[in-house]
């Protein structure tokens, strides 16, 4: 491409110096291997006498001198554990400049730095980790304080339960603030049968000497004060969370990280003609809407399978490279196989020792079954297999999948979105007669949308069909439900056999391990944006943790065991869950088993220094997963607030511990993560905090309506039997043949009735919202105060559901329905009047794939016509072609060979780069097999680039 005589290669060469000054770390990228080596060499002398973490001190002082821990310590040229631990503290862990401001220092920045102290790092300093991290910790701290205030407000209810719901036997200390009812008596029941009390007849139903049946009644009534305190607590939480949402929204604006990006200038075409592969044609079409011009066009093909295979091949090659001596040429097949043979001989000759043999059998072999820790020969075999598969995929024809067009101004983008906005029906039916002729491209009604950010596009998943995406998501949802069922079954069996404490510990372990399991399942899902992926994962983890922690217990516990005092009943189980959340869950997170496995098992057995350093990248964390832990505690305390108001004290303590443990993990355990923005905070506030509030009012309504949880009713208008019961019934016989002496506490017999919604669902139908009408005709179990409370909550549930429906779903549904029949594009915000080419930190749209273990994303397109500054990163050690997957396996039709950093940039006078290719590689294919990106810089931009060389 040429603009006023200047080619993109000339512009690239003129602007290389400014490109190398760009900050990769500012965009969330790690240092390159060369930058790490330079940094560690410069810090070699500074490390002496510096403060070290206790783990590093213990390893360097004791463990690394033991052959069972570091079996390669006596081998010449073995990697250094001290070097990797220094790398961990200097590169992986976050550091700040010395001083009260604690401004975060990037690894390659000059100045005296130190590690963040988790105890001295204040809330105001956490914004250095990004607005998303800052909002998360702010939410945890604010909600913990909210729990403390709510707990103090519920002291009257806690006192009432402690005094009035207990008999002379007393209760366990941890349940004093709950509705556990230790005050009971026996009453004759004419229509009771053992079948009506499944799983409970051994303790709640007995037979007298005369053959009549007696049932146990809970002598624990509801007072108006209990319901009022609970209702006003819900109002308090509603006001508090609303105020917190407003405050955080203001804070997001103040610390706005969503500055102008390529998204503000771009549009995306989701249904382009499959053969419209000329970027100039797209530029000419969209130029009619541009205020100034079209600056970038990016074409993406439906070649995702080939891209994923190329990515797997690159990963295998890098795994193999780390096992071999530095400088081994992986492209020289003979030299590569020779190096692998030497490596195998050296590996087999090394003594394993007892510890090594145990680890090989118990750890390394099982991991290799899942493709992890592969041996060199396995990597080489996989590379050969993947290479052959790639060559087959390169021979296929690929169609255009998505088009991204970037304008020079925001006005151009808005004009295009407004002019090309069409109803969903017109797009699907291709009703060109309803669309202005200027908006028709090749006789097609285009679906043009406002795209997501360039780094949030999942290019490897863009072309999968909607049907596959829906089916895969639904299948994973079903699997998640199955996991919930399995976890609930295991928790129930454990509770019956070992008690609620062991069951609660198992629940905590399940909650800790579910993110890893679901992340593996997410590999089968296809999401076009990173936001869609994170939301899907976030939803499934939240669903599992909410059900596993709170709701499953209610389903597996018999109804009449809800407030009874048995060891395995509901409230003792909830208490055990909360204690586990207070101690076991933070211990699992702080213990960091995956990270310690990397640092203390795999790292000492690494063959090369690079392989060892990869074990010190820190534990990968997901902010969405941390939010699920927060909402899980919120949900449990809300769900059982009526029966267990003391849970608010637990919630305060749990979140206080979570705040400090997560802060320790952030500064001493977790790896480097890019700034995540405020999307997860907004998502949590909008859906999960709101959902928890709705669950609060609904669960409380049912809790008050179902008291006293004994499934026994008094008849209205007198007795229902002429039998006159005896006051004393001795030697009652239970279903397990146990006998006890009891006193009958009620003259009139009682009748069986379903007080719980599960029993009512089987007999009377679904009772929602719960109301006083749930009481059967002629029978009554609610007191007058209880009926008043139930009526309050009945209308509160209706109002909450209506508000939630309107805010959460009606607006979205209405917009979707209206969009089917007419265009509904509305611009948001105001234009900043800054041209695209004037923004120095902007990144273009081009196909790329980012992996956690690599410093930069892999490019998957022809970017020769793209200015390097728009790529978004600079590798001072390698050419951009190193990060471009299209050069990994040569194919017929390649436009040029792969370049290295030392190769001179071609000039117009040089022969075509295609002359450098092998004969079987050169030539032109009818259709490209990789995406195409083309840059059309404005004239003034070219002139400025030319002036820099004068």
TrEMBL record:
GO terms for MF: calcium-activated cation channel activity; peptidase activity
Protein name, UniProt field: Protease
Family annotation (InterPro entries): Csc1-like (IPR045122)
GO terms under cellular component: plasma membrane
BP-aspect Gene Ontology terms: proteolysis
Biased composition (Acidic residues): 906-918
Lineage: Eukaryota, Sar, Stramenopiles, Ochrophyta, Bacillariophyta
Transmembrane segments annotated in the record for this chain: 142-162, 222-247, 467-491, 503-523, 633-661, 687-705, 792-812
């Amino acid at each position: 491409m040429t603009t006023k005589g200047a080619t993109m290669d000339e512009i690239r060469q003129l602007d290389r110096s400014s490109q190398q000054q760009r900050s990769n770390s500012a965009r969330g990228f790690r240092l390159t291997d060369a930058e790490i080596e330079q940094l560690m060499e410069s810090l070699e002398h500074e490390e002496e006498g510096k403060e070290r973490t206790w783990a590093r001190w213990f390893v360097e002082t004791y463990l690394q001198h033991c052959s069972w821990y570091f079996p390669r310590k006596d081998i010449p040229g073995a990697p250094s554990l001290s070097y990797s631990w220094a790398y961990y503290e200097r590169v992986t862990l976050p550091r700040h400049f010395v001083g009260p401001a604690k401004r975060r220092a990037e690894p390659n920045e000059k100045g005296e730095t130190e590690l963040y102290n988790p105890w001295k790092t204040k809330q105001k300093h956490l914004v250095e980790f990004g607005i998303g991290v800052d909002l998360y910790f702010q939410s945890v701290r604010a909600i913990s304080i909210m729990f403390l205030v709510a707990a103090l407000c519920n002291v009257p209810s806690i006192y009432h339960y402690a005094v009035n719901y207990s008999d002379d036997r007393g209760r366990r200390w941890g349940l004093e603030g709950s509705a556990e009812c230790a005050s009971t008596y026996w009453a004759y029941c004419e229509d009771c049968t053992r079948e009506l009390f499944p799983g409970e007849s051994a303790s709640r139903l007995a037979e007298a000497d005369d053959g009549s049946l007696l049932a146990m009644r809970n002598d624990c009534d509801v007072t108006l004060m209990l319901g009022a305190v609970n209702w006003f607590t819900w109002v308090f939480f509603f006001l508090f969370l609303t105020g917190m949402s407003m405050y955080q929204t203001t804070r997001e604006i103040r610390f706005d990280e969503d500055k102008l990006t390529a998204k503000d200038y771009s549009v995306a075409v989701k249904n382009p003609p499959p053969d419209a592969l000329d970027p100039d044609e797209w530029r000419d079409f969209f130029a009619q809407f541009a205020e100034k011009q079209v600056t970038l066009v990016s074409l993406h093909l439906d070649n995702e399978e080939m891209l994923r295979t190329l990515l797997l091949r690159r990963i295998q090659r890098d795994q193999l490279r780390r096992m071999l001596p530095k400088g081994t040429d992986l492209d020289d097949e003979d030299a590569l196989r020779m190096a692998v043979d030497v490596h195998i001989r050296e590996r087999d000759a090394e003594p394993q020792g007892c510890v090594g043999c145990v680890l090989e059998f118990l750890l390394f072999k099982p991991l290799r079954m899942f493709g992890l820790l592969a041996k060199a020969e396995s990597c080489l075999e996989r590379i050969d297999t993947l290479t052959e598969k790639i060559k087959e995929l390169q021979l296929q024809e690929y169609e255009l999948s998505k088009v991204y067009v970037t304008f020079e101004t925001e006005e151009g983008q808005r004009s295009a979105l407004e002019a090309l906005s069409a109803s969903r029906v017109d797009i699907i039916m291709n009703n060109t007669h309803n669309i202005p002729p200027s908006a028709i491209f090749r006789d097609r009604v285009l679906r043009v949308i406002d795209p997501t950010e360039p780094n949030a596009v999942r290019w490897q998943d863009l072309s999968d069909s909607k049907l596959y995406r829906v089916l895969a998501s639904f299948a994973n949802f079903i699997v998640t439900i199955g996991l919930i069922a399995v976890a609930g079954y295991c928790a129930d069996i454990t509770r019956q056999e070992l008690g609620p404490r062991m069951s609660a510990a198992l629940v905590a372990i399940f909650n800790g391990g579910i993110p890893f399991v679901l992340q593996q399942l997410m590999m089968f899902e296809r999401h076009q944006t990173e936001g869609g992926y994170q939301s899907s994962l976030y939803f499934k983890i939240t669903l599992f943790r909410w059900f596993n922690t709170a709701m499953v217990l209610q389903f597996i516990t018999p109804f009449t065991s809800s407030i009874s005092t048995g060891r395995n009943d509901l409230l003792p189980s909830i208490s055990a869950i909360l204690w586990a959340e207070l101690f076991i869950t933070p211990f699992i997170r702080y213990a960091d088993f995956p990270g310690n496995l990397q640092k203390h098992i795999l790292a000492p057995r690494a063959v090369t220094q690079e392989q060892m350093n990869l074990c010190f990248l820190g534990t990968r964390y997901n902010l969405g997963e941390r939010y699920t832990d927060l909402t899980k505690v919120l949900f449990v305390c809300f769900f059982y607030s009526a029966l267990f108001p003391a849970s608010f004290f637990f919630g305060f303590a749990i979140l206080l511990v979570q705040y400090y443990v997560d802060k320790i993990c952030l500064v001493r355990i977790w790896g480097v993560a890019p700034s995540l923005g405020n999307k997860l905070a907004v998502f949590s506030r909008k859906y999960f905090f709101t959902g928890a509030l709705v669950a609060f009012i609904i669960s409380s309504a049912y809790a008050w309506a179902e008291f006293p949880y004994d499934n026994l009713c008094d008849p209205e208008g007198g007795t229902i039997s002429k039998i006159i019961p005896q006051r004393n019934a001795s030697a009652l016989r239970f279903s397990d043949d146990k006998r006890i002496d009891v006193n009958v506490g009620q003259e009139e017999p009682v009748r069986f009735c379903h007080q719980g919604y599960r029993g009512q669902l089987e007999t009377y139908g679904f009772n929602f919202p719960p109301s006083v009408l749930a009481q059967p005709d002629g029978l009554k179990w609610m007191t007058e105060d209880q009926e008043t409370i139930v009526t309050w909550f009945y209308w509160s549930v209706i109002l909450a559901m209506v508000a939630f429906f309107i805010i959460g779903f009606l607006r979205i549904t209405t917009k979707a329905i209206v969009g089917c029949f007419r265009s509904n594009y509305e611009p948001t915000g105001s234009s900043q009047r800054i041209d695209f080419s004037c923004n120095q930190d902007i990144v273009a749209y081009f196909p790329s794939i980012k992996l956690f273990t690599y410093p930069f994303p892999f490019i998957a397109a022809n970017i020769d016509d793209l200015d390097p500054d728009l790529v978004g990163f600079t590798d001072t050690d390698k050419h951009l072609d190193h990060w471009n997957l299209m050069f990994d396996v040569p194919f017929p039709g390649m436009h040029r060979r792969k370049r290295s950093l030392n190769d001179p940039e071609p000039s117009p006078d040089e022969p075509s780069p295609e002359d450098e290719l092998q004969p079987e590689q050169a030539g032109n294919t009818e259709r490209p097999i990789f995406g195409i990106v083309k840059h059309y810089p404005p004239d003034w931009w070219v002139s400025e680039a030319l002036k820099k060389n004068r």
